[in-house]
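[audit] Reproducing an earlier prediction to check determinism. Same input, same settings, fresh worker. If the tokens differ from the archived copy the diff job will pick it up downstream; this log only records the rerun itself.
[audit] input (240 residues):
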Amino acid sequence: MAMWNPWRGCHKYSEGCRHCYIHKGDFKRGIDTNKIIKTDNFYAPAAKNQSGGYRIKSGQTVYLCFSTDFLIEEADSWRAECWQMIRERSDLHFLFLTKRIERFSACVPADWNGGYDNVTVGCTVENQDRADYRLSIFKDLPVKHKNIICQPLLETIDLAPYLEGIELVVVGGESDRNARPLDYGWVLAIREQCMARHVPFQFRQCGTHFIKDGRTYTLRVRDLCAQARKAKIDLSWDGA
């Protein structure tokens, strides 16, 4: 696994961004998150060591722009170089998430055609309104590997109309002392939708405020992922 953030900074874009941990962390450090700038890591996939080999070893998944959005407008003039490096590193698999899926067609290179084999796109949704808007676009896009990310999940969502061709659905809660609650029933409902269509499912993290069987629990942020794993409800898909 490798991380690649060719730029930093982002803008809050919808309800799911309200308690964004990037904005909170930047605020504590006196950094303006709304300023989008290139990072020193911009050319990381193409960087080589003294012996001439790539610093990022072959065969890895590269998590792209996980502290920003790969499709953000301010990066339009830089993105072509990123696509060039992604083409060059066909031995790596690149994964990025976006809340700006409506910009996708304007942001892909001329040779995208049906999509690159080494790119997975995750469309992030947090409620039914954003699911219906973003996923109605996403389902028709030429992308070879598609994920749906429901994190933070803010209400029950019907994903059933949008699951064809999806390789993974990820669900998680919000991690903040002021976080909106995550109801376990919402998580299980999405799992049932995935199970019915043999779509892999992952419960990635509980919410700080977690509702189960009508009772609300307040969990420590450091325990959220571990608590989700303890539920043992992920689907791989061999049905288990």
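[audit] rerun output stored. Observation attached for the diff report: The mean pLDDT is 95.
[audit] end
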